[in-house]
Design goal:
Number of strands: 0
Structural class: mainly alpha
Strand content: under 5%
Shape: globular
Radius of gyration: 12 Å
Helix content: 55-70%
Order of helices and strands: HHH
Number of helices: 3
Distance between the termini: 25 Å
Number of domains: 1
Largest sheet: none
Amino acid sequence: MLNKGSERYQSAVREAVDVARAVVDKREGICAGSRHLAGLAHVLVPDWRIDADFVVLGGFDSESDRFPPPRKIAR
């Protein structure tokens, strides 16, 4: 996890919000959105394996390896 004041952290927060909104607005599928959010975990939380929210996303990402890679989010 980066310092919460760092530009990379703030950028990851904005990206996570954009991804979550895209899923809620049905511009992005839950599978692709979850995988994208899981990819941001290392920047946003100290340890995704014990974070209540990110452990679910990390598990989903791990179990969805057989699916095609997620496409870019339409913003």
